[in-house]
Amino acid sequence: MNVSEAIRTRRSLGKVKPDAVPQEWIEQIVEAGTWAPNHKLTEPWKFFVMQGEGRDVLGNALGDIQAAGGDDMSEEAVNAARESGRTKAYRAPVVIGVAVEPSTDPKVIELEEYGAVFAAIQNMLLQIHELGLGAVWRTGEPCFHTLMNQAFGLKPEDKMLGFLYIGYPDMEPKQGKRQPAANKTVWLNSAADL
Known about the structure:
Blueprint: H1 3-9, H2 23-33, E1 45-51, H3 56-67, H4 75-89, E2 94-100, H5 110-130, E3 134-138, H6 146-151, E4 159-167
């Protein structure tokens, strides 16, 4: 599969089989992330590979965040929230959390650090696709919650930017569609073109 084909055919697959993914493939996926472009070669990414009961770290964090949403929750409701979080963490045999640890160098622009980690995630998604695996990149408010940082030992200035749920596909990918690039492109051959 060439790069152009991989870009056009990769789709988010939220339903995967519970079968184990070979360790060497997981290592290839993480390695692909490390080759993302990053200004000043700061390499601001951090990867958390969760398999087996290691997924409980994510599940417990999701449950704790959901349980923290209401001060008047009963013990039953808190337990249900925690079980819901655990269920979510077990939707795939491999979950990779991807965080940004921005450089503290004043010459480094923090937003560029985030961009580098987003590029790392795209590299990983393309590597996953090339290996014939399925994946979905899950984000949302719980990713950015203080309790998520605490669960993964991240500093306050760090952020979890998402979780890649990875496994063998257990669904057909939807057909991709995008607007033509021409609809989103402005060609500037002179200042008068604006």
